Amino acid sequence: MSVYVFGHRNPDTDAICSALAYADYLQRTTRPDAIAACCGTPNERTEFVLRKAGVASPKIMMDIRPELEDVCKRDPVVARKGDVFFEVYQRMLDNGVRAIPVLDRENKVTGIVTLLDLLQLMLRGGVDPIKSREVRSTLDKVVEVIGGTYQHAVETDRVDDLVLTVGAMSADGFTSRVRAFPAERLLVVSGDRPTIQLPAVETGVRALVVTGGYELSTGLLQLAKAQGVTVINSPYDTATTTMRIKAAHLIDSVINSDFLKLPARMPVENARQQVYRSPQMIFPVVDGDRLVGILSKSDLVHPPRPQLVLVDHNEITQAVQGADEADVLEVLDHHRLGGSLKSTNPIRFYMEPVGSTCTLVAKLFRSSQIEPTSGIALCMASGMISDTLNLRSPTTTDVDRDLLCWLQNFCDVDLEKFASDFFEVGSALRSCDSDQVVREDCKEFEESGRRFSISQIEEIGFDLFWKRKEELSNSLEVLAEASDLEFSALLVTDISSNGSLLLMSREPDGWEEINYPQLEDRLYQLDEVVSRKKQLLPLIISLLEASAPNQNR
User: Fold this and answer.
1) Which of 74, 77, 220, 552 is the most buried (most CB within 10 A)?
2) pLDDT tens, residue by residue, 197-216
3) 146-234 has which CATH code?
4) Is 227 helix (H, G, I), strand (E, B) or coil?
């Protein structure tokens, strides 16, 4: 099973680039099956980075809860319309299964056949002297099952309702018996007995099977050709040949076409009730009409859990949907420790107070003496430049400066020039609607049971913000209500002045203690504040904590 390396929801450049870089690191060290993933579309700046780096975007996965295609058995044993008992039974026996799906000529799933269904073909008719002899098949299938050869062949691919008759009696007794059936339906089995072979050929039976490795004499063969009788030679004795011919019965009549099939993308949890209520033994899993695999009830008892590595976050509320039902193997982050992340097994938890998660990944590359490719090096540099505002944020450390300098050795571009281009690209206020702006880089937090979100965008100047302030305010209110949050905040950071504006959906209790100028209702000027994690989040938490006693009075 692959391990997915995920950044947080509504991912920014650091989240996506650290996922790509750490997946590359794992592939080159301990997990060649590591896959970089993201639970949101990269923003314009991140797409600019990926184009410059020549690196493909991570796989977009909005929900990692297991789906049926993740737990079904791939490449299952199948039967096809036109198969016969012998080959389908042998297939089941060889693979230890008691039911298999049936496909038509276009490879569409048309039904299911079980071992019990197959046995009905061999036992059908019971002791009825006519029905117990009937075999619906083609002569080609008969020859295949008995391992025989043709001495003379007539329309051998035609499906016939054959009546199996064994010539193990006197010539007179045999003659009277064959007259009881239409000659064109009779399949006569005989050993080296000309007294049986002659009346069979003269009657014009559908086919004559000569057993024991014998062949029809030249004279009788000429007569068979004149009468349009197919002549088959069997290497087996008469008893074995007869049993094998019965096993050449087509399975079509016992295929169960009233069956439950399940879509490949259906979540396991959604499928459980349908599967447990059904009497079916197996369930075809399909993508449209194409068979993806098969599922049994036991496959849903303990389905495999997805394996995750979380980068740039450590809180379940910020993780991809379904992370709480996965096995989190590692966490790499540079934020505060928070949320409700739990694990049943020990995990590797790598946190350090640096400017970006890409800094931590770059540190791993260097300590392991692994040289990153130019594309991965630029990705890591971009995450660091983005999160530290090109080393101007108060979150910047000497470790960030040192590693960004180290990464320059592997990048094909000048990082100072690249940083300038990076911040000029992708103004969210210029290219996105207001709903997208407040969700582009949005993180949810929970403190003392109080849930809120903080979004952040970086701009060059505040001109566009003032033009769109009202619609942004409305979108913040919608976001808070839709996510059942106490409030939502938008931090608009001006890269050129190293200051921000803070817009609130509403002001929680205790907000009046904020020590920054209020410009308008629910709008504040935060000079020298550019970091959500190191400056704004601690400020908000302190205000909420200070108001808590007042709420309890």
Assistant:
1) 220
2) 999 999 999 999 999 999 99
3) 3.40.1390.20
4) helix
